[in-house]
Amino acid sequence: MIEVAAALSGILQHWTDLFIILALLIFNAIVGFWQEHQAANAVFDRVQEVMTQKSKPKTLQLKPYLYRGLFRCGECGCFFTTETQKGHNYLRCTKRVSACTQKYVREEAIATQVDRAIERVTLEAALADQMVREA
Ligand SMILES: [Zn+2]
Fold first, then answer.
1. How far is the CA of 65 from the centre of ligand 1 (A)?
2. How far is the CA of 94 from the centre of ligand 1 (A)?
């Protein structure tokens, strides 16, 4: 509609009106272009934000069990899993591959066995010091 007004002003040779109308048209076009550019940037930024969030691997909040992922079942070879029941941590076979007769065991029992195994291969401090001096 404003274009019709510009055309009529030109036909009627109202140059001041034509100049003002053309200035308004140009200003309106610049503002429209700038707003579209801003909207496109906002959409682009939001899409990047969503894509970044979706590409992040989900971090599972695993409980910090002492022996997580360390042992396999002696009977079936499956990994042991750890869980807490009534305030105690238990390890048990996942039994994913085949039927397995192994039952759960308390973490403290495993810790005792691990301590004994480490003690068998640990040098006494005095002997270790002597070996270091002689080396
Ligand atoms: Zn098993």
1. 19
2. 7
Quote the ligand 1 centre to 67 CA distance (angstroms). Answer: 16
pTM of the model: 0.48
What is the C-alpha to C-alpha distance for residues 76 and 109, in angstroms, rounded to an integer?
A: 20
- Ligand 1 centroid vs 118 CA: distance in angstroms? 24
In angstroms, rounded to a whole number, what is the distance separating the alpha carbons of residues 71 and 76? 12
SS3 category, 25: helix
Distance 58 CA to ligand 1 centre (A): 29
Q: Alpha-carbon distance 13 to 58, whole Å?
A: 70
pLDDT in tens, the chain (135 residues): 888 888 888 899 999 999 999 999 999 999 999 999 999 999 999 999 888 888 777 777 788 888 988 999 999 999 999 999 999 999 999 999 889 999 999 999 999 999 999 999 988 888 889 999 998
| Structure-block tokens of residue 116 | 């004994």
| Alpha carbons 103 and 93: distance in angstroms, whole number | 7
∠ CA 40-45-51, nearest 5°, is: 125
